[in-house]
Design goal:
This protein has 2 domains: about 325 residues, Rhodopsin 7-helix transmembrane proteins (Rhopdopsin 7-helix transmembrane proteins), CATH 1.20.1070.10; about 80 residues. It contains 12 helices and 2 strands. Helix content is about 75%, strand content about 0%.
Length: about 425
């Protein structure tokens, strides 16, 4: 086997389509088009980047899952769940966990676990439809819950009656339900039409396509997803955050000119500080979300189809897409650290949760230790009491035996005396 054949075989497993790659790309890896020198150089770089990003995808899954679970626990505590913003952020954390186990986990499975570089979605038809459906829904619902937070804060500042009529805490569950139902219904067609069997006997699945339309998901539904997931939320977040920044700056100037020193002024200052913390946290989270997800959106919409379809450019394009995907899913794994950095009340609740957890473990350890000690003392007391009872019973039995012996001796002596008396009378 010559060198060119070895080069082709070593590169082939890494050029399959992924869920992030469009389905209608040309197959440009025929032997007639191959430049052996360039393919060898790009193959090494390709392997290194793909393997590194596959490990990074697993790190995102682990850190993102733990961070979002801890975020849900902290936000559900009594002091934080009474805020409207925190209710939305709880749903964001749930959706972020779901989204990390979709395309992001597929990168790790495809290039690290699978020997044939197969997609995780193509394990079965159930995997294909459920994973793709949950990924689309999780990403879109997470984006729109962040958008709802920004919109709620903006409307509360613009309309003074919004908070008392439509932005009350009791109405948040209805707003979240409307967003969730909308995203679920919008992507419901994926559960029925996505994927088909290439080989019915071997159960070989082709995902992100239908038997009559290979462009069903990529690029057709992908364009709708980019508009719903990136463009519309980006426009709303940008508009709302710009207005919030303007109001915050104007309020800061008013507070600088009107400093209040009475008791009511202190209460107002405390309330203002709390709202300022929520505003800073919200702006930081939405800014990082837009910053990390917008490059992927811009690339797929404006630059994806302008790159030349050659072997070298396709290798480079494949690496760029996975890099942008890793950056995109980073936004769904770091919110816990953003909350810790920007919100003092979140840090205080986290500190209180850790203290309660440590104190509970310490109290449980002490209670178990005291229980073992009390059991030992009770056992010792019972043993001592039993020994005392045994000694008293032994003494009593011994005294009874002595009395019986003495009584027998007395009876025997009386009998002897009686016999002696009878003998003397007979004499």
């Amino acid at each position: 086997m010559n060198g060119s054949t070895l080069s082709l075989l070593s590169l082939a497993p890494l050029v399959y389509e992924t869920s992030m790659d469009y389905m209608y790309d040309k197959d440009i890896y025929s032997p007639n088009q191959f430049n052996l020198t360039n393919s060898s150089e790009y193959s090494n770089l390709h392997r290194f980047v793909i393997r590194s990003l596959s490990v990074y995808a697993l790190i995102l899954v682990i850190i993102g899952t733990l961070g979002n679970l801890l975020t849900i626990i902290i936000l559900c505590r009594r002091n934080l769940r009474r805020y409207v913003t925190m209710r939305y952020l709880i749903v964001v954390s749930i959706c972020d966990i779901i989204s990390l186990y979709g395309w992001n986990l597929n990168n790790f499975y495809k290039f690290t676990i699978s020997s044939n570089n197969n997609n995780l979605e193509e394990v079965s038809m159930v995997h294909c439809r459920i994973m793709s459906y949950m990924t689309f829904v999780g990403l879109q619902l997470s984006s729109w819950c962040l958008t709802a937070v920004s919109l709620d804060r903006c409307l509360s500042l613009y309309f003074l009656t919004w908070k008392h009529k439509y932005g009350k805490l009791s109405r948040v569950k209805y707003h979240i339900a409307i967003l969730a139902i909308t995203c679920l219904l919008l992507n419901s067609h994926i559960l029925f039409f996505n994927g088909y069997y290439i080989d019915t006997l071997k159960k070989t699945v082709k995902c992100y396509a239908t038997r009559t339309n290979i462009h069903y998901i990529f690029p057709q539904w992908e364009r709708v997803h980019l508009v719903v997931y990136n463009l519309c939320p980006f426009i709303i977040m940008l508009t709302c955050n710009t207005f919030i920044i303007y109001i915050s700056i104007r309020s800061a100037r008013i507070r600088m000119t009107r400093r209040m020193t009475d008791a009511s002024g202190k209460v107002s200052t405390t309330s203002t500080s709390r709202h300022r913390q929520l505003t800073i946290m919200l702006m930081l989270v939405t800014f990082m979300f837009v910053l990390l997800t917008l490059p992927s959106c811009v690339y797929f919409v404006f630059f994806r189809h302008r790159m030349p379809s050659t072997s070298d450019s396709r290798t480079f394009r494949h690496m760029v897409q996975i890099c942008l995907g890793s950056i995109q899913f980073t936004a769904h794994a770091i919110n816990f650290f953003l909350y810790c950095f920007s919100a003092r009340n979140f840090r205080e609740e986290l500190h209180g949760f850790i203290n309660e957890l440590c104190c509970k473990r310490t109290s449980d350890f002490k209670s178990n230790r005291l229980a073992r000690t009390s059991i030992g003392l009770t056992t010792f007391r019972r043993t001592k009491r039993d020994d005392n009872n045994f000694d008293s019973k032994t003494t009593l039995n011994h005294e009874c035996k002595v009395d019986q012996t003495q009584r027998k001796l007395t009876n025997f002596e009386s009998k002897d005396e009686l016999n002696d008396g009878n003998e003397s009378n007979s004499d």
